[in-house]
Structures are given as structure tokens and as C-alpha cells.
Design brief:
5-stranded parallel beta sheet; Rossmann fold; 2 domains; alpha/beta; binds glutamic acid; elongated; single chain
């Protein structure tokens, strides 16, 4: 049987907040309960959206909460050659093309595309430099069963359209990088927030084209604020305080419905995590996203 390997893959756009702690903790407990290895991958692929120093602060905050990577942290910004190789593999199969439709053109254009790219550049044979590079998608359903959310299906061609793998500004898209790195790091468990559930078929689609194995998926409920917005930098989620790590972990276990006993709140960080590893239960997870005052 495969060695169980999980990962937490934050984008360093701001400090760690309660929402990201839920994902980090969920992936850590899920993986450690199975005696697995847990890795941290820094998804620093989009410099315009990143905040200087955020990557280090995230790692420090995770360490203060008792979670450290079992291997050297992988930085996506240093892995362009791997993404380029994957793109080349797809190009060899004639599955990518250059696209010069701007976002403005697509939204201004009179037809209603409902956000699904209609393949306007599919047959134009445009050069790929300084252009978005899109994946030529096929009319077939991707079906997978999420460990918490159950069966999920999506037809990429009709529900998403040919999606972007590399942007015109030269940056690789999350969808491509995440698939290449999950495979390169031999990840068997992808545990992350439910907001990424509908991205998963796109990732499975790319895995199939590149002949990579499919990991198991577990999408956790996400925390929202009182306006039902996902906690994030954009919604001004507060940074976690390392000095309150025990309290934060306890609150995260409660949010995830794991039923921590009250006396765990004041326990040592290592003891809180040990309790979490022993009692981790996917069946207890709340079904819906929950709002939380944070
Ligand atoms: N970097 C993504 C984020 O911070 C997570 C990607 C993933 O776990 O697949 O939202």
C-alpha cells in the first residue's frame, strides 16, 4: 500500500487566519491518524497578489500551532521548469492553444457565455507567447467521490470550458501547478476547503492527460463571516495570534465538530494535536459551511 502523504498548500497572500487553520489542521489530523507524512507547499505562483514576508509568517504561525512540514517546504515559484515540462507534454498531444480573448472582450461580448469559455481561439493557431494558454477540453464527465462531500460530477467542456494553464503574463495557473506538484510530491490525500470542490474535476482531468495517479480528496466545510463571505484576506479575516495557539486549535476542533473535551483548551499544543489525531472523524464533520465570529 502507498505511504499516506498529505499537504497544506497556502498561497502567501496574507497571514494565516482561522479559515486556513481549519484546512491545515484537518489535513494534518487526517494524515497523521493514518501514520502518514504531512508536507507544506507554498503556492507562491502569483506575485502580484502576494504580500512580502507572508510566507515566512505563515510557516512561523503553523509552527507555533505545532504543525511543521515533514520535508523541506516546496516553493512553487522555484518550479517553473516542471510546469513547463507538463505543458510540453500536453502540447505534444496537441491539447493546448494560444488565446487572445481578453477578459473584457469576453464579458463585453453580446452573447451570454455564463463564464464558460466558448473556445473562440480553438482553431486560430495563434502563437503561444504573451498569450493565455488554454487546454482543449473534451465532452466527457469527470466523476469522483469526496471523502466528506460524497459523489461529485462535472463536464469540463460544457460546465467550465477550455481553461487557462498559463497566463499571458507568464505565470502558471494554479490548476496546472497543483496537479504537477501533488504528483511530484506523491500526495495521496488532498484535504482542503470546500470552496475548491468544483476545481477538483479540472485537476483530475489534467491528471488523466498526464497519466498521473489520482489522490483521495477530502473537502472540509469552510468558515464564513457574518456576511457569509469566506474568511480571507479580501474579507479582512484577522490574523491568528501565535500566543493563543491552544485556544485557536481548540476552536478549530470545535468548528470541525470533533467534540474536544473542555479541559483540552488549556492543554499543551502537542497534547491537543495528539487528541485530535486519535479522535479525528470525517463522519463528524459539519455538512455545511458555518459562520463564525472571529
Ligand atoms: N493555494 C490554495 C489556497 O490557498 C490551496 C490549494 C489547494 O489546497 O489545492 O487556496
Amino acid at each position: 500500500m502507498d505511504v499516506v502523504r498529505g499537504r497544506f498548500a497556502p498561497s502567501p497572500t496574507g497571514p494565516l487566519h482561522f479559515g486556513s487553520l481549519l484546512t491545515a489542521l484537518g489535513s494534518y489530523l487526517h494524515c497523521k491518524q493514518q501514520g502518514g507524512q504531512w508536507l507544506i507547499r507554498m503556492e507562491d505562483l502569483d506575485p502580484p497578489r502576494e504580500e512580502t514576508g507572508a510566507a515566512n509568517r505563515i510557516l512561523e504561525t503553523l509552527a507555533a500551532h505545532g504543525m511543521e512540514s515533514d520535508e523541506e517546504v516546496l516553493y512553487q515559484s522555484r518550479r517553473s521548469n516542471h510546469y513547463e515540462q507538463a505543458l510540453q507534454q500536453l502540447s505534444d498531444q496537441n491539447l493546448i492553444y494560444g488565446c487572445n480573448c481578453s477578459r473584457k472582450f469576453l464579458s463585453d461580448t453580446s452573447q451570454d457565455y455564463s463564464g464558460i469559455y466558448p473556445g473562440l481561439c480553438r482553431n486560430k493557431q495563434l502563437a503561444k507567447t504573451n498569450r493565455n494558454i488554454r487546454l482543449l477540453t473534451d465532452d466527457k464527465e469527470i466523476i469522483f467521490t469526496d471523502l466528506a462531500q460524497g459523489p461529485y460530477r462535472q463536464n469540463i467542456f460544457s460546465e467550465v470550458g477550455d481553461f487557462i494553464l498559463k497566463r499571458r503574463d507568464g505565470f502558471y495557473a494554479y490548476q496546472l501547478a497543483v496537479v504537477v506538484d501533488d504528483s511530484a510530491q506523491h500526495i495521496t490525500e488532498v484535504v482542503r476547503g470546500c470552496d475548491l470542490l468544483d476545481n477538483t474535476p479540472r485537476q483530475i482531468y489534467i491528471q488523466q492527460l498526464l497519466a498521473y495517479p489520482r489522490p483521495r480528496y477530502l473537502h472540509l466545510p469552510i468558515a464564513t463571516n457574518s456576511k457569509h463571505e469566506k474568511l480571507s484576506k479580501q474579507t479582512r479575516a484577522r490574523a491568528l495570534q501565535s500566543g493563543k495557539a491552544g485556544k485557536n486549535l481548540f476552536a478549530a476542533l470545535q468548528f470541525l465538530n470533533q467534540g474536544p473535551p473542555a479541559n483540552l483548551m488549556t492543554a499543551a499544543i502537542a497534547d491537543i494535536l495528539d487528541w485530535g489525531i486519535e479522535h479525528w472523524s470525517i463522519r463528524s464533520l459539519p455538512q455545511q459551511q458555518k459562520s463564525i465570529k472571529w
